[in-house]
Design a protein that fits this description.
By secondary structure, the protein is α/β, with parallel strands linked by helices. Helix content is 37%, strand content 20%.
Length: 308
Amino acid sequence: MGSPRGRARLGIDLGGTKIAGIVLDRDGTTLAEARVAAPRGDYHATIEAVAALALQLEAEAGTPCTVGIGMPGSPSPATGLVRNANSHWLNGLPFGADLARRLGRPLRIENDANCLAVSEAVDGAGTGARVVWAVILGTGVGSGIALDGRALTGRNGIAGEWGHGPLPEPRDDERPGPACYCGRRGCVETWLSGPGLAADHARRHGGTHTAEAVVAAARTGNPEAQATLAAHLDRLGRAAAQVVNLLDPDVIVIGGGLSRIPELIAGLPAAIAPHVFSDAFDTPVRASLHGDASGVRGAAWLWEAETA
């Protein structure tokens, strides 16, 4: 299919319930986009669904494309097999190799949080920043790092893996912390995800409120909901500061469903600052510019350096 230089970029965001695809030209203009339902629990059907969507979009764009894939979990550098995916039917299988064989071309595959970081670094809320730390706060919690617009994956392919570390500086009522599906207790994800926020409110005040309902109640002045949201912001600040002390990013970009809570974005710098080992903290915290499209755009931009 010739050199990748100058070709359009096709990105696929493989989620647990949907598969989104996009084709971008070299300037980032959308040439084609679509989404389909993800075949849950069926590995081979997932391969076929992703391949069919990629081929459909390439045909609609009318030009050969490089292909980048964003997915839950990541391929192991040691084996090429998927690990740590909450779409459990992918784990332990050579998804990248099988899909590349099906499409007849090389692929770039990254964790979906890395794709968020790349998207926002290239032409989003982190444009112009050398080091972008992108955080996903949604059903789960994760993060990715973009360095000069490219995903930083690390030697073991786990750079930015934040959701399954322990909550820093736990208080007595935060020990040992909620049980996590990974087998540990007190992971950052169990506290800072949308379900984590809802579960914390239920432990404190009872009821079965969703995270959205807690936020809505806090905005009306409900003191119990306001206390839950304040505790959530405090934990987010402690957890984020741990990464700031290690990475010192130029910008922090927040994506995922909880990024739509302006109070979290606005309050996070002050929540981080007391825990940063510095005499000053002025790192901007911004909501993702591309929102739900950031993952799929970042997957397309995985080939950015070769096609620029």
